[in-house]
Write the structure tokens for this entry.
Amino acid sequence: MANPKHAAPDHDVHELIRHRWSPRAFDPARPVSRADLLRLFEAARWAPSSLNEQPWRFVVVRRDGSQAAWEATVAALSPTNRSWAVSAPVLALVSVRLTLERNEQSNPLAWYDAGQAVALLTLQATAQGLSVRQMEGFDHDHARRVCQVPDGFDPIVMMAIGYAGDPDALTIDKHRAAERAPRRRKAVGDFVFEETWGRLYQREDG
Ligand SMILES: Cc1cc2nc3c(=O)[nH]c(=O)nc-3n(C[C@H](O)[C@H](O)[C@H](O)COP(=O)(O)O)c2cc1C
């Protein structure tokens, strides 16, 4: 039977794009090796960025690492995110450098660039059988303190990384339902236009 979490694309795309999705249920008994994690960050490393500034930074916190670090990081999550993310074997805080290394002027594209790095990371994770769910729902000041993010950098997203687990282990009803629901997307025609905004981009000329 088709996996409802795999994309059903209108136009053919690579299997990695079809198969990537963001679970909340992670297998708590399956750790991720350091070598496997390094491959994810290697993928991020090769992302394009404005002026090749590579403004992304990651702080990795492992459940099988320091208990104090793990608990403090989990405590930074919103209660809803904490309810499921605590089962992931790895949390990673994504931060950005706010200014350009070359001249210390502000870098308005830092967040855009970090998003691209994380996008590559999530595809690499999919290729390795791993899953990633990103979270904006966390206390940024708390995470900054716990992960010791220095001035000049801003935390933006926390990632839960691991192997997808049993949806029935999720404690919030709507999360269990969402974990099995088909994924919904706008149609390409809703966001791609031809020559002028709002003019439908069609497969055939005419
Ligand atoms: C920047 C960002 C922030 C997100 N924040 C949260 C969050 O706080 N909690 C959560 O459960 N999911 C969060 N998500 C996951 C999205 O809800 C999810 O990616 C989206 O519903 C599409 O699902 P898919 O990744 O499975 O295609 C976030 C995703 C992104 C990219």
